[in-house]
Structure formats: structure tokens, C-alpha cells
Amino acid sequence: xxxxxxxxxxxxxxxxxxxxxxxxxxxxxxxxxxxxxxxxxxxxxxxxxxxxxxxxxxxxxxxxxxxxxxxxxxxxxxxxxxxxxxxxxxxxxxxxxxxxxxxxxxxxxxxxxxxxxxxxxxxxxxxxxxxxxxxxxxxxxxxxxxxxxxxxxxxxxxxxxxxxxxxxxxxxxxxxxxxxxxxxxxxxxxxxxxxxxxxxxxxxxxxxxxxxxxxxxxxxxxxxxxxxxxxxxxxxxxxxxxxxxxxxxxxxxxxxxxxxxxxxxxxxxxxxxxxxxxxxxxxxxxxxxxxxxxxxxxxxxxxxxxxxxxxxxxxxxxxxxxxxxxxxxxxxxxxxxxxxxxxxxxxxxxxxxxxxxxxxxxxxxxxxxxxxxxxxxxxxxxxxxxxxxxxxxxxxxxxxxxxxxxxxxxxxxxxxxxxxxxxxxxxxxxxxxxxxxxxxxxxxxxxxxxxxxxxxxxxxxxxxxxxxxxxxxxxxxxxxxxxxxxxxxxxxxxxxxxxxxxxxxxxxxxxxxxx
Length: 515
Hints:
Elements: E1 4-7, E2 11-13, E3 16-20, E4 30-34, E5 40-48, E6 52-57, E7 70-73, E8 79-82, E9 90-92, E10 108-111, E11 122-123, E12 128-130, H1 134-137, E13 142-143, E14 150-153, H2 158-168, E15 170-171, E16 178-187, H3 189-202, E17 208-214, H4 219-239, E18 243-249, H5 251-264, H6 278-286, E19 291-292, E20 298-307, H7 315-323, E21 326-330, H8 332-336, E22 343-350, H9 366-390, H10 397-414, H11 424-435, H12 448-454, E23 483-484, E24 495-496
Parallel strand pairs: 9-17, 14-20, 14-21, 16-17, 16-18, 18-20, 23-24
Antiparallel strand pairs: 1-7, 2-3, 3-6, 4-5, 4-7, 5-6, 8-10, 11-19, 12-13, 12-15, 21-22
Helix pairs in contact: 2-3, 4-5, 6-7, 9-10, 9-11, 10-11
């Protein structure tokens, strides 16, 4: 059908055109539309019947008339030009250069709809991707080949988190090529400039491919943007052997565009007005991530979506959670406390974390340490609820210790600078330092060997907690949670030996000379 052209259209409503066509046009087929001014507009076939075709334009229909409009059917779907020069470039949602540079020098094109991956050819995701953010690396680790969405809300700093991950993300094997494909849908111009300037300033733009669909772009372009980005990622990963991290923001804008297009086609709506095929449409994007046997590269996805009214049961996060392997939740309460990044570790989850951490990948203590931090912070949540009922002054000494641990966990472990890039070793060391403020008998998820090897002062060399119960030697003062003999003064969380007097957050009265 290449070159077949029909003159005149039957109906036009917004970007939707209805044209007569005696030949059957394929669903998703690319068309070129020409008005009386001769300008070429591109669209694609939304639906077709025996004698008519519904076409959605990628641009405005201004200047088109019913009688003089010409429609050419191109007999191909939308394609993206690919090549090694993709890195460092900025494109619009359709894959056209948006950085004032010409098209990349390549004659290779790929269908933006991608090719289905044989499930039998998939390799189970393993290995660790370091984002430099402790709340992710330490507690909800990102694994190479994983789909790990970030659930946020309106007004929360998910754009800043996305930019920070793009700047800092890396794999620990220095000899393996790594790239980031960044796609933004429905964003304002100032947000787009923030991303570009952030990547330019940090010097990472050379390994980033960017696709922008701005807020004033047609809705149909938002539907193509993530497909263009994933097509570029598939080329870099499966043909160039690179490990690619794909960040898609904001998937809520994508789903809103899908709802708009569905309504314009007169489809029967489902939950919240979204089309009934929302699940399969999202799956067609998310399932393009992973590793395959025939390539050394991989695609890892972080889709970012803002939950309407912070409702995690909304169809968008609800269906996303079914398809992906966990979620990272951005919390409004933490954000109001001034914690950045405000990632709530309790509702967050990385289902593949256990397969990408440990000796040889991160550190041998990673799994047990994260489990203990989860357990201790969960106790903090319970104590805070109790404190709201009976008042903090009525809490036990141990409960007050947990309250102080929770405050330090949020301000020292979760909170970090926007340009602070923590290694996994630094993240784990912070976790051990915080656990040092808790009584030894509360560390039930840590083995004695790990405690002696990693807990500050556990080996007795720093005057900290002893092997049995955290008591120090005569006159020794601990830096975090230790106890002194003969009435020695302790730092926060310590207990005195003589008389059982407690310092701030102490964990119980001691007998003479003992903790």
C-alpha cells in the first residue's frame, strides 16, 4: 500500500480524522496527511473498517479541509532511527531531534512497538545496580533486569529523585558499559530544562539518551514516547551489549493520554474511566525490560508515577504493582518533615533484592542488616502509635530508645543530600552505626559473628558494647549505646554501672559494675 493516496476526509474532531479508504489499512499503520498548504503531518491508524479509517495525528489539524486533504498510507509502523550516536542526544516523543542537532548518522530503523521476547529466552535478573540512595540500595535494592516502579504523589520530589538516580546510577563492574535512557511525558518546559541542566552540570549527559514529550504536545505523542525510549534501550542493550537503565516519568500522564484517546474513540470505559485494556497496555511497556540469553546487555526499568490523591489503590499504581517486581513509595509525611529523599521503606518492596545482594555482589552482611533495620524501624512505628495515645513520658526506657533510633534512622540513613552519592559500603556502615544505639539483645536478626565484625565497638577496641550484653570495661565510655563501669558517663543510649542511673535513651538499670 506504499504510495496509495486518497483525497478528502469525512470527519475531523481534534486530532482524530475519519477518511475513506477502499483498501484495508493496518492497525497502527503510519500515514502522511497533506493540507492545502502542502505541509506534511504524520499520524497513525487507530481503527479501520471496510470503507473508512480513523486516523490520529501527531500534531494539530489546523489548516486541513474536508475536500482538499490528502491521506497517504505508508504501509509501515512508526520507526526510530538507531545507532551508536544515540548517547548524549535529546529527542522528542516521536524520536525527532530536539537539541538543535541533525539526525544521527545511521540507516538503521527499529519499530517502536518492539518485538516480543520469548519467555524461555529470558535470564533471571541478578546483580546489583547502585543508585547512591541509601533507602534504595540498602533496603530495597535495584537489580539488573528488574522492573521497580517509584510511587509518588503530586507535589512530591519524584523529579528530583529521578534526576539523582540518573546522575548516580552505576554498576560496580567498571569494565561493563552502562547507559541511561530517560523518557518524560507531559512535563512542563521548566521541568525539562531542569533535567537537561542537571545532567549537563554533572557530566553524565554523554551516557544518557533523553526523550521529552512536553505538556503542550499531542496526547498521542505521550503514548509513543515510552515506546521510542524502550526501542532505543533495546538497541543499546541487545545489539550493543550495554546495561541500560530506563527511567519513565510520569506514567500517570501516559495513562491519562491513553484514557483521552480511548474516550475519543468511543470505547466503553472501565475503572476511573480508563480503558479496559490498561493492564495489557502497561504490560506491553514494562515487559520490555529484562535480560535475554542471546545478549550480554540488560534493560532495567524504573517507571515513576504520581498517584492521584496519594491513592495507591488507583488503577495505575494498582495494575503497575501486579506487573512489576515491587515498588518504591515516596511518602508525604516524611517530605513534610524535611527528609529528602522522602522514601518510606516500610511499604516499599524489592522482590528480587535477595538475588542481587550478598558476598560477591554487595557485602556479606547486607541481607541480615537490612532485615534488622526493617524490624527495628517497624518497632519504631509501633512505639510512635503508642506514644500518641499514652504520651512519651509514659513509655518504657526501651521504647524511648527506639524513638531516638527512629529519629536518627530518618535523619541519618534515609535523609541525604541531593548531590550526595553514597556507595553501598557507606550505606551499610551507616546502618550498623545506628544499630549500635540499640541494646544487643534486640538485634535478634544478626548473627554474633556479624555483630563482632561490623557493629561499632563490638570487638572492644573502641570502648563500646561488649560481646555479651554491651557493658564496657572499667571506666570506658561508649560512643553509641555502650555502658561504663564505676559510674562512668555514657553517650546517648548508654547506661551507668553504679546505681543504675540512665543517660538519655538508656536501656535499663545495671547492677554494680555490670550492664
